[in-house]
């Protein structure tokens, strides 16, 4: 039921975020893929799961470039379905998900 | 004159959430917030509570309104386009009936208790986060009801869910779970619901239902689910912040929090027994097995990711977690086999899994299905082929804590029923597991008060002494319960899908709703 576009490492302490699969969110997913080299993107029913063995950064500027309009980081609330990890930063320019300790 | 500079998210959050708070001068703090000291949790500085979302009331309203608009656009097109005809099979709705009867009332309970936290937590940061969550939970309850009401026009079994939540035997599992949480203090509630339910176990509860909807042609529920889940991410954050805040405030809080994690992990895990059978047996088109979901969402993400993080504070993985891991190959099979035998008294229907479904189960559970459970289904199947349908006519012993019938087996021995008991003040109390017995023995005074549906039936409190009396008291109507094959829903569904003229294709609403 799932398609993997990269290897899913096991026994690595991952962080991850699940995003609804929509037209608008494609830009968000592409921005995350571009800014997080070690991330893995997996398509599941209705959603896209992004995981990383280190951390996941969502940059406002990267999303805006791909969306062709202004995008405030609050809009990520409409995209996110679930996550694991800790939201270490969420400001005007960036959202950062990683484990604290 | 220069244009006024726009505040950053951080500044806006500080101005609109923290700066609107004030120090009390007419009353003592412990009089204004009387419930945050009796549990033994020590808080020295409420301002240390972090909200990573930096949510302000204007942003909250703006985005919540947008979420509702998106959902209602889908509900409208579903209703206009006869979307109910897109379901894979009418039996899929059993999963939704279980959700409506079992989960929707919990959303409303959560709304109420987070409203209480929004008043009675000392700090403005957690009060505001609790206020948002309280509003979210009300939205979830309302939109769930509204979403599923579209099916209520055509299908049985969705007419008395609220009434049934308070009365029917298997629904006392979720009800008693939440009753336990809301009757605890505010900090325990935050660990019970905010952390354990919303962070540790949420993906095992909601993702299976929503992916199940996505795979089985139920567009509105999938959309509702994603809409609710977007709030859920904020709730996860609140739960994680709550636990970190308590652990960072005082080292004396650590053992208290650990005991709550131990308790609420097991309480939540036992509740998920109902979800496990839904995933493996109720969904006509399968999404993933319970075992796979448990490994991904719990073992990998929580035991592998979260608990190493909490180890920094001295927190260990939950007590009895090894029993949950050991049960992953047997749990769903044991639960559905029991429901199969008792569905004459349930608000959903059951049937022998099809050949394809059994093949899938054998692939997903190579260690257990063919050896332990297929023989049971072969027997049930033979009874059906002889023109019968087997229902169990007695009433089961329920576990005093989780209230699930005592169907679980001894650790390491999947053919011997696990039975534990404890004497308290001259009475014997029975439990399904070491986990539930341990929970009872921490707080026996609380759990001796449990409203156990089977005991209540025998005491004459459930409509009368006979099965029909009790079913009437449950408000079960023909078609709500029993066997799937040949019931009114399947007959109606087959008729709708068989007709060819447009006139005939407009199905008549089910009578009685």
Greatest interface and its participating residue counts:
A-B, 35 and 42 residues
Per CATH, the class of chain B reads Mainly Alpha
What is the CA–CA distance across the termini of chain A? 33 Å
- Spatially, the strands of the biggest sheet of chain B line up as 1-6
Work out the number of β strands of chain A: 8
Whole-number mean pLDDT of chain B: 92
Element-level helix/strand string of chain B: HHHHHHHHHHHHHHHHEHHEEEEHHHHEHH
CATH H-tier superfamily of chain A:
Monooxygenase component MmoB/DmpM
Core attributes:
heterodimer; A: 101 residues; alpha+beta; five-stranded antiparallel β-sheet; three-stranded antiparallel β-sheet; 8 strands; 25% helix; globular; disordered N terminus; B: mainly alpha; two-stranded parallel sheet; two-stranded antiparallel sheet; 24 helices; 60% helix; 4% strand
What's the topology here?
The complex is a heterodimer of chains A (101) and B (513).
Chain A: E1 3-4, E2 15-20, H1 23-35, E3 40-44, E4 47-52, E5 56-59, H2 60-67, H3 76-79, E6 80-84, E7 86-90, E8 94-98
Antiparallel strand pairs in A: 1-3, 2-4, 2-6, 3-4, 5-8, 7-8
Helix pairs in contact in A: 1-2
Chain B: H1 9-18, H2 29-32, H3 57-80, H4 93-102, H5 104-120, H6 124-152, H7 161-165, H8 172-182, H9 186-200, H10 202-215, H11 219-249, H12 253-271, H13 273-282, H14 290-310, H15 321-326, H16 331-342, E1 349-350, H17 355-364, H18 369-385, E2 409-410, E3 413-417, E4 420-424, E5 427-431, H19 434-442, H20 444-447, H21 453-458, H22 467-473, E6 482-483, H23 488-498, H24 502-505
Parallel strand pairs in B: 1-6
Antiparallel strand pairs in B: 2-3, 4-5
Helix pairs in contact in B: 3-6, 3-11, 5-6, 5-8, 6-11, 9-11, 9-12, 10-11, 13-16
């Amino acid at each position: 039921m799932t398609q993997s576009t990269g290897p899913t490492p096991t026994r690595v302490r991952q962080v991850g975020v699940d995003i609804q699969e929509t037209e608008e969110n494609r830009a968000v997913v592409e921005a995350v893929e571009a800014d997080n080299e070690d991330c893995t993107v997996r398509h599941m029913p209705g959603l896209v799961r992004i995981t990383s063995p280190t951390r996941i950064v969502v940059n406002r500027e990267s999303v805006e470039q791909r969306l062709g309009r202004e995008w405030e980081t609050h809009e990520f609330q409409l995209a996110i379905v679930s996550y694991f990890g800790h939201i270490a930063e969420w400001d005007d320019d960036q959202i950062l998900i990683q484990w604290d300790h | 004159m220069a244009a006024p500079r726009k505040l950053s998210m951080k500044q806006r959050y500080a101005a609109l959430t923290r700066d609107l708070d004030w120090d009390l001068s007419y009353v003592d703090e412990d009089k204004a917030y009387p419930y945050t000291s009796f549990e033994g949790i020590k808080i020295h500085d409420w301002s240390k509570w972090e909200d990573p979302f930096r949510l302000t009331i204007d942003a909250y309203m703006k985005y919540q309104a947008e979420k509702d608009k998106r959902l209602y656009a889908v509900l409208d097109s579903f209703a206009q386009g006869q979307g109910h005809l897109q379901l894979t099979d009418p039996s899929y709705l059993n999963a939704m009936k279980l959700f409506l009867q079992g989960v929707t009332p919990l959303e409303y309970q959560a709304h109420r208790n987070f409203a209480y936290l929004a008043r009675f937590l000392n700090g403005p940061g957690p009060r505001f986060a609790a206020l948002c969550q309280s509003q979210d939970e009300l939205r979830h309850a309302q939109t769930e009801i509204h979403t599923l009401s579209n099916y209520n026009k055509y299908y049985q079994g969705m007419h008395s869910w609220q009434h049934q939540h308070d009365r029917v035997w298997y629904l006392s599992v979720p009800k008693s779970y939440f009753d336990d949480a809301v009757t605890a203090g505010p900090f325990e509630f935050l660990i019970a619901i905010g952390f354990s339910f919303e962070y540790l176990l949420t993906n095992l509860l909601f993702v299976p239902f929503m992916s199940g909807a996505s795979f089985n042609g139920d567009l509105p529920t999938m959309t509702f689910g994603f809409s609710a889940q977007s709030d859920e991410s904020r709730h996860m954050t609140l739960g994680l912040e709550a636990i970190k805040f308590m652990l960072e405030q005082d080292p004396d809080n650590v053992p208290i929090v650990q005991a709550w994690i131990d308790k609420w992990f097991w309480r939540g895990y036992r509740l998920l027994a109902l979800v496990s059978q839904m995933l493996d047996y109720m969904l006509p088109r399968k999404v993933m097995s319970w075992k796979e979901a448990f490994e991904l969402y719990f073992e990998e993400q929580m035991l592998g990711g979260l608990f190493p993080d909490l180890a920094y504070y001295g927190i260990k993985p939950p007590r009895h977690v090894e029993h949950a891991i050991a049960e992953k190959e047997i749990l769903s099979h044991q639960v559905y086999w029991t429901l199969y035998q008792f569905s004459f008294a349930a608000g959903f229907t059951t049937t022998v899994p099809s050949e394809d479904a059994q093949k899938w189960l054998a692939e997903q559970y190579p260690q257990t299905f063919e050896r332990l459970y297929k023989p049971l289904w072969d027997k049930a199947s033979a009874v059906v082929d002889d023109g019968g349908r087997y229902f169990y006519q007695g009433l089961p012993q329920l576990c005093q804590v989780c209230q699930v019938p005592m169907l679980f087996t001894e650790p390491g021995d999947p053919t011997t029923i696990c039975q534990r008991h404890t004497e308290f003040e001259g009475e014997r109390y029975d439990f399904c597991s070491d986990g539930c017995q341990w929970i009872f023995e921490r707080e026996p005074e609380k759990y001796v008060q449990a409203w156990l549906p089977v005991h209540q039936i025998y005491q004459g409190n459930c409509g009368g002494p006979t099965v029909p009396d009790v079913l009437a008291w449950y408000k079960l109507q023909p078609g709500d319960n029993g066997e799937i094959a040949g019931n009114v829903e399947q007959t109606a569904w087959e008729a709708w899908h068989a007709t060819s003229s447009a006139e005939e294709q407009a199905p008549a609403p089910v009578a009685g709703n």
